[in-house]
Design goal:
The protein is 41% helix and 14% strand. It is an alpha/beta fold and 438 residues long. Strand 7, helix 7 and strand 8 form a beta-alpha-beta unit. Bound molecules: uridine-5'-diphosphate-xylopyranose.
């Protein structure tokens, strides 16, 4: 099929690269540098396995990027994959979706051959696809030749390619059976497994994304709340509890990992967006509010564990391990580390931070010149008075606690991701972690 993807960010680029194995892809982005890079076969995102796939797709002519919609020619499917960031009040900013729809409608005559499916993939509040796309198409002379759908994306950063190739389910929200069939046929030749194809209303499909992300975020906060209790109960350990609990076939053990909480570009934004959406229809979602509240308290909890061991942090040199919001990505958006750094700075501690992939301090609420960022773990740990681990990169586990702490001045190690819980700490190391009583 001939497919156009509007928006070449994480979702758009990963989707384009995966679909390009069997389809002809045109990626459209308003950022000229993104377009140039993609056309040179260079990925604009860090994603396992994307670079080689992109290079060969571009050199074989299966994938191309463009700046202007009218460079596209006719298409069987158009995906809208632009960003939906949060407004200051936490509600979803739909301006990029709306202008992408404007652009698609403007070029519609040249995009349509016989029939075209237009699907929104950007995460949007229920009702958006109908209002911003279907209703507008209905008022054009082309309405009979266009199928409209909402098709949520569930891929995770760092494993986006594998997730797209092996989806658990493909949700297609549409009232148009031909659009459903088109998208189903498009995916069927790409995926490596046999996912369930679920046809729903557009509104239910829009809700699916919010419900899935909110549920996973709630599981994390649920585990974190019990982790707090475990810290106060002699001999209790959160992993022992959750592992045993998860053996109940009604409860899956995934996303029960206690730690510094969730971050990234989806969970915080989607939980907040769901709360604001509920408010807009005068409904309260107290479970989601609690999920958010527990998550916001995690960095403070970690700092209080540190302060138990080092009460006065003024001028103390503290190493922070991990800046990305999770291992396997260089993305720092809403990383829990940012809040940890903010709290540490309030204590007048001196901070150095290590991350194997992130090479630039994000500017989000921080004064970057204050903080030393390095990709050399030995440099980071040299003569520090304490260390906090926030992102569970493999390199830390591989080094082991003994090697990691050997050049510390004062060997206080606070493990915010329970990476070393199963290791016997060296005698001279004070090891503390979330969710275990000490
Ligand atoms: C998430 C969803 O998983 C994905 O389906 C959706 O499309 C986008 O949002 P992503 O943000 O890439 O994907 O990361 P994910 O692996 O889900 O982790 C999100 C956050 O939760 C990370 O900060 C991670 O460290 C944290 N997390 C995850 C925990 O704290 N504990 C866990 O047990 C699992």
């Amino acid at each position: 099929m001939r497919i156009m993807i509007v928006g070449a960010g994480y979702v758009g680029l990963s989707l384009g690269v995966v679909l390009s194995t069997k389809h002809e892809i045109m990626l459209r982005d308003i950022d000229g540098r993104t377009v140039d890079k993609i056309n040179a076969g260079i990925s604009t995102i860090h994603e396992d396995g994307i670079e080689n796939r992109l290079k060969s797709a571009v050199s074989d002519g299966r994938l191309r990027a463009c700046n202007a919609m009218n460079e596209s020619g006719s298409r069987d499917v158009v995906f809208i994959c632009v960003g939906t960031p949060s407004n200051n009040d936490g509600s979803v900013n739909l301006s990029s979706v709306e202008s992408a729809v404007d652009d698609v409608l403007e070029t519609l005559p040249s995009l349509i051959d016989d029939y075209i499916t237009i699907a929104i993939k950007s995460t949007v509040p229920p009702g958006t696809t109908r209002r911003a796309l279907l209703d507008r198409i209905s008022s054009t002379p082309y309405s009979k030749k266009v199928g409209v759908a909402f098709n949520p994306e569930f891929l995770r950063e760092g494993t986006a390619i594998q997730d797209a190739l092996n989806p658990d389910r493909i949700v297609i929200g549409t009232e148009d059976n031909r659009a459903f069939q088109t998208l189903r046929d498009m995916y069927a030749v790409i995926v490596h497994n046999k996912p369930e194809y679920v046809q729903t209303s557009m509104e239910s499909a829009e809700l699916c994304k919010y419900v899935a992300n909110s549920f996973l975020a709630t599981k994390i906060s649920f585990a974190n709340e019990w982790a707090n209790l475990c810290e106060r109960i002699p001999n209790a350990d959160i992993d022992e509890v959750m592992k045993a609990v998860s053996l109940d076939s009604r409860i899956s053990g995934d996303f029960f990992g206690a730690g510094v909480g969730y971050g990234g570009s989806c969970f915080p934004k989607d939980v907040e967006g769901a709360i604001r959406f509920a408010e807009s229809i005068s409904e309260d979602v107290s479970i989601l509010r609690a999920t958010e509240k527990v998550n916001a308290s995690r960095p403070k909890r970690l700092l209080s564990i540190l302060r138990n061991e080092v009460p006065d942090l003024k001028n103390k040199k503290i190493a922070v391990l991990g800046l990305a919001f999770k291992p396997g990505t260089d993305d720092t958006r809403t990383s829990p580390t940012l809040r940890v750094l903010e709290l540490l700075r309030q204590t007048n501690a001196r901070i150095c931070i290590h991350d194997p992939l992130v090479n630039r301090m994000p500017t989000e609420g921080l004064c970057p010149s204050d903080i030393i960022l390095t990709d050399n773990i030995e440099t980071c740990m040299q003569n520090v008075d304490a260390c906090i681990l926030v992102t569970a990169w493999d390199i830390y586990k591989e080094m082991g606690l003994e090697r990691l702490t050997e050049s510390m001045n004062n060997k206080v190690f606070i493990d915010g991701r329970r990476v070393f819980v199963e290791e016997e700490p060296p005698k001279d190391v004070i090891y503390r972690t979330i969710g275990t009583h000490f």
